[in-house]
Every structure is written in structure tokens, then in C-alpha cells.
Description:
With 303 residues, the chain is α/β, with parallel strands linked by helices. It has helices at 45-56, 69-81, 99-110, 133-158, 181-201, 219-228, 233-243, 252-263, 286-289, and strands at 36-39, 60-65, 86-90, 115-118, 163-168, 206-213, 274-277.
Amino acid sequence: xxxxxxxxxxxxxxxxxxxxxxxxxxxxxxxxxxxxxxxxxxxxxxxxxxxxxxxxxxxxxxxxxxxxxxxxxxxxxxxxxxxxxxxxxxxxxxxxxxxxxxxxxxxxxxxxxxxxxxxxxxxxxxxxxxxxxxxxxxxxxxxxxxxxxxxxxxxxxxxxxxxxxxxxxxxxxxxxxxxxxxxxxxxxxxxxxxxxxxxxxxxxxxxxxxxxxxxxxxxxxxxxxxxxxxxxxxxxxxxxxxxxxxxxxxxxxxxxxxxxxxxxxxxxxxxxxxxxxxxxxxxxxxxxxxxxxxxxxxxxxxx
Length: 303
Ligand SMILES: NC(=O)c1ccc[n+]([C@@H]2O[C@H](COP(=O)([O-])OP(=O)(O)OC[C@H]3O[C@@H](n4cnc5c(N)ncnc54)[C@H](OP(=O)(O)O)[C@@H]3O)[C@@H](O)[C@H]2O)c1
């Protein structure tokens, strides 16, 4: 991401210049100024944070939502307060055939699309053996088919300039999680699509990557813990924080910061990758998690 323009405006009134690297003030040049981003599921959680971060970097935005019209309107207001243009579109991704008309509205309003963030997801958190066909169909429609439809529909408005496509995946693509079998399979498919799209679109200057968050503090994760697992959210969070090397939970803003960097000029050579953003949670081995390695049982002799 490009940061620059820190000049005379950084001198505090009546004070000395800040040391290099510690300057503050209003002179930061938005790194994505003039670009247009389309983000699915922008009414709350990760999508909302991505929208606000991209707008703060100078991007005009279009966000889609399914049910939460009032919250989508609140996000539009927050973007406009940042001085950027915003457009909220009702789009139920269970109907991928509705994607192209929505993308056409964005292209018509702004005349271009530079960034596509496929964020929306929904599933039925239940064991695979209790999953019905419609759960699988809808989960894959929202995550997998919608990504392809979005890219196909947005491409004509992206061509001829550097472009960025980012899909939000999840660590359920790598690790088995109770009730996440269908969504994990969909996310694995998303990551495979990301690699193939990166291969196809790289020559056109368009990068395609995925961000794979661990456990984030969002309504979606609360729903999963409370309704999917039947557990207390606060207690679950406390245990996860203790197990996470970074010793905190992820936030939508963590994801938004990485997405914004991927959308910037400095990330031009990074494509086809899935970046895990989990505070180190998934680098731990099960043995480390149960404490065997750090605190061997008495009488245990290594080797
Ligand atoms: N939260 C976590 O811990 C976590 C971890 C790993 C990965 N992720 C991934 O991060 C992304 C965002 O997660 P989140 O926790 O922010 O989600 P969330 O709070 O559940 O929000 C989901 C968003 O998707 C939209 N959406 C849901 N169903 C839709 C449909 N059928 N058509 C169109 N839009 C639909 C919602 O719109 P409405 O508000 O209008 O319903 C909402 O904007 C997802 O891809 C998720 O899999 C999350």
C-alpha cells in the first residue's frame, strides 16, 4: 500500500516536526483513490469493515446485502461521511443468476470496477450426515457459484487497468470443524477457484487471492457457537484466546486491513494465494494444544 505526501502539513501547530515514521496529521494520501470496489455481504461483520476500510483509502464502494436493509443504509451513510460514494444493492446470492444484473448497476453508476471482494457466506451448521440437498446447493451457490458469477460479470468493467479480486475463505477449508462440513467444502472450492482465476487473469494485471480468517468476533461466529454448537459464546471465546499464540480474537478490522493491502499497488506480485489470518491458531499441533509438550506427565521419559 502506498503511503505518502507527508510534508508541511504534518508539522504540529507551534511545535517541531515529528520524527520520521512517527508523523501524524491529515496529509496521508489515500492509496486507492479513484477506484471502485464491489463487496458482497457489506451490511455487517467482515464485509462492513472491508467497505469502511476501502472507503477510508479513497475507494467508492458498492455493497450487497440480503436482509438487513437498514444496516446497509447505515454503512452507506458511514461511507458518505468519509467523502466517498456508496451504493447498496439487495442481492440474494442463493440466486446466482441475479449477480450479473447487480454488477451491471454498479458499472452503470460508477463506469468502472477495480476491486471485487466476495465476502458473503451462509450455511446450515449441522453434521454432514444430517445435511439436506438444499443446504449444500445454497451454501455452494452463495460462496462458490457467486464468486464465479461476480468475476464473469465484473470483468468487462475491470479490463485495461490493474484489478483486484479477493475472496474471504475460512480455516474450515483446511481443518474439520463440527457443523462446518458443507461450508468448509465450499471454501476449499473457493480457494481452488482463486488459484485458477489467478492463472487466467494474471496476464491482464488482475490479481486474485483469498484471505482465510480464523475465529473472528462477529455475529456469524456467535451464531455458530451458540446455535451450531450449543456453547456459551463468552466462555468459548476465552478458551480460544488462551489457545491462540497472539492471545486475542481476530476482528473484522484485521481482515479489512489485509484485504486493503491486497487491493493496493504494493501487492501486485501476490496472486493465487490463500493467506491465513488467525493469530497463529492453526500453526499449533494437537499435542501442543493438550499441553503434553510443554508440561509432560510425571514419569514421562523423552525418547
Ligand atoms: N466470523 C468468523 O469467525 C469467520 C471465520 C472465518 C471465515 N469467515 C468468513 O468471513 C465472511 C464474513 O463473515 P461474517 O462473520 O462477517 O458474516 P456475518 O456476520 O454472518 O455476515 C454475513 C453477510 O453475508 C450476507 N449474506 C448472508 N446470506 C446471504 C445471501 N444468501 N445472499 C447474499 N448475502 C448474504 C449478510 O447479509 P444480511 O446482513 O443482509 O443478512 C451479511 O452481510 C464469510 O465468508 C465467512 O465465512 C468468518
